[in-house]
Every structure is written in structure tokens, then in C-alpha cells.
Amino acid sequence: MSWTSGIVVYVMTWWLVFFMALPIGVKPPHEEGAQAEIGHEAGAPVRPRLFKKVLAATVISGLITALIYWVIVSDVISFRNS
Questions:
Q1: Is residue 67 part of a domain?
Q2: Rounded mean pLDDT of 48-61?
Q3: Model-level pTM greater than 0.85?
């Protein structure tokens, strides 16, 4: 796997993991007993915890990319005609 392929795999896995992590642990104001502020969407989360989700997406996608790299380099699954 070349560097450009590795970067593409990492970016794709990062976005997938990030979007999967977005709905985890979020609660709209009415579930916490509060009212949405004027001008805010009623379903918008009170504390989205984006920094934790970005950090988790970075670590998890790094591990997934390393696993994909290992699978390709070790020829566990061969993508080449032999």
C-alpha cells in the first residue's frame, strides 16, 4: 500500500467512524428537563461532546487503518493475480 492509498483509507475510515460516533450519548433539551433556547432547534443536543468524538474517531480509525495495512502487506487476502 502506498502513502497516498494509506491516507485515503485513513480519511475514509475517519469520516465513517466520526459519523457513527455522532449520535452516541447526545440528549436533546427536553430529555434533560430543559427548554431549547429561542432560535435553536428543539432536537439539538445539549452537550454534543465533539472533541471526545473527534479524538475517538482519530484513534479508532488509526487502528482500523493499521489493520487494513497489515492485511494488505501480509497477503492474508491477496489482491494480486498470482
A1: yes
A2: 96
A3: no
